[in-house]
UniProtKB/TrEMBL annotation:
Class of enzymatic activity (EC top level): hydrolase
One Pfam family in the UniProt entry: PNP_UDP_1
Keyword Cell membrane applies: no
Protein name per UniProt: Futalosine hydrolase
Family per record: Belongs to the PNP/UDP phosphorylase family. Futalosine hydrolase subfamily.
InterPro entries the record matches: FL_hydrolase_MqnB (IPR019963), Nucleoside_phosphorylase_d (IPR000845), Nucleoside_phosphorylase_sf (IPR035994)
Single GO MF descriptor: adenosylhomocysteine nucleosidase activity
Domain Nucleoside phosphorylase: 1-165
Keywords: Hydrolase, Menaquinone biosynthesis, Signal
EC number: 3.2.2.26
Function: Catalyzes the hydrolysis of futalosine (FL) to dehypoxanthine futalosine (DHFL) and hypoxanthine, a step in the biosynthesis of menaquinone (MK, vitamin K2).
Length: 182
């Protein structure tokens, strides 16, 4: 978030503002919807653990009366990104703690039925982009299942290969994206 805000501010001050922010990386995939090596493009970027724990369960900051928990990339941008890369569109959760148990995965799935993946940076990047009025896109290549911690199940190399291939197709598609499309 800090780096994105700094880059956006520096570019704006230099008179060459960015037109789009892309947050990309590896991530955990909710199974079976987002298999290892597959790509997810966020149609919602949601802070999954930004709020308060209460005796009755988790309350997002929005229910505490302030803040934001979801940023929504432009629909046309999501469509273009999925069309170019074959990615699935769904909610990508931003977490501060990587999910490591089946119980936590189930809790997140209950709270966010549209979630396909989780990562750690998307929401902060989206906050910075929103502060500058710049659209945001989040792309995750699935390196591990969301669930019980199992380092043997990680496929970071495969995910990075998928992400690299996706960017070969994504970059030209983004160049031709018209921000005024709906
Ligand atoms: O130690 C672990 O059990 C563990 C499991 C998965 C990921 C990590 C990381 O520290 C990854 C940080 C890095 O990768 C992204 N990422 C990848 N998989 C996940 C995930 O399942 N949940 C959240 N973030 C993930 C993350 O965006 C960071 O860039 C450790």
């Amino acid at each position: 978030a800090a780096s994105t805000a700094t880059a956006l501010t520096a570019a704006a001050l230099a008179g060459r503002p960015y037109g789009l922010v892309v947050s990309a990386g590896i991530g955990g995939g909710f199974q079976p919807a987002a298999p290892l090596g597959s790509l997810v493009v966020a149609d919602a970027i949601t802070a999954a653990d930004l709020g308060a724990e209460t005796a009755d369960g988790f309350l997002p900051v929005t229910e505490l009366g302030f803040g934001t928990v979801t940023h929504r990339p432009p629909k046309s941008l999501v469509r273009v990104a999925c069309g170019a890369t074959g990615a699935r569109a769904g909610t990508v959760l931003t977490v501060s703690t990587v999910t490591g148990t089946a119980a936590r995965a189930a809790e997140l799935r209950d709270r966010h039925p549209g979630a396909l993946a989780e990562g750690m940076e998307g929401f902060g990047v989206a906050e910075a982009a929103a502060a500058h009025g710049v659209p945001v896109l989040e792309v995750r290549a699935v390196s591990n299942p969301v669930g019980p911690r199992d380092r043997a199940a990680w496929r970071i190399g495969d995910a990075l290969t998928a992400l690299t291939e996706a960017f070969g197709k994504l970059a030209p598609a983004l160049e031709s994206w018209n921000p005024h499309d709906h």
